[in-house]
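Journal club prep — side note

Before the paper discussion, L.F. wants everyone to see what a predicted structure for a comparable chain looks like in token form. Sequence:
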Amino acid sequence: MSAARDPRPLTGEPLSLDLLNTRWVHDGAPRDLLDGTEGLAVWLAANGLEERFAADPATLRHTLQARDALAAAVDDSLTAGAARVDAVLAHGRIRATLTPAGPGEEPEFPDASWGPAWLAARDYLRLLSTAPDRIRHCAHEACVLHFFDTSRNGTRRWCSMAVCGNRAKASRHYARSKGD
């Protein structure tokens, strides 16, 4: 698998949800982009992190820990996932800075292999403080993907209208036509 090719059906979500979306279902079979360091390299590149962090076993291990923690917080409950997300966040911090452009923040990690995991966990906190009700799981029963609803009225239901939304429409149409 080359770093240029990302096989996932949904990309471009905020970092925390994009990490969750490294697991998906294709033709009824579960897939996992992070089944090795090659997949980690693809994910790092997809999120502009490949220059800052190595796709090595330690980074993979920590990124998987963050993915599991985020899944617990998003899919189960904040109560279930909070301690696990906090455990990831314990491996980094924000350092306040002053630049010629004004105040800023810079993430710091005592161990760089925690960087991608920490950034994903920190991004989840940002989403929670921005609009927690817009963190969504796709409404299609066979889909495991997540998205951040940026629609104007906040009613997006599908990871992709072209895929999951269309499947649901086709299923409803089929059910109606069988009933006639």
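L.F.'s comment for the group: The longest strand covers residues 93-99. Keep this in mind when we get to the figures.
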